[in-house]
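Same chain as my last thread, 87 residues:
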Amino acid sequence: SPRAGCRGSIIRGKRGYGCSAYKTGCTFVIWKDSFGASLTDAAIAYLLKHGRTALMRLVDEQGRPVEGRLVLQDPNTGQLRLEPVSS
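reply #2:
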């Protein structure tokens, strides 16, 4: 389905998922390898639909293993943030 803003579509590349409107300036990209996880097509589809992934094992900014979700922080750029699960 078309992305809000640029009306492009999400396409899978070698290292990530980007927007088909990149040639006209859209900077949206989600890298396949994010926070220590290799994101699958299914995980990306879920993330785009729900704004966050299912619970997964990730690595935080300090390199520590953590359980949490990836959240689509900026729908215009594809920037993700780690949302750890409270223990």
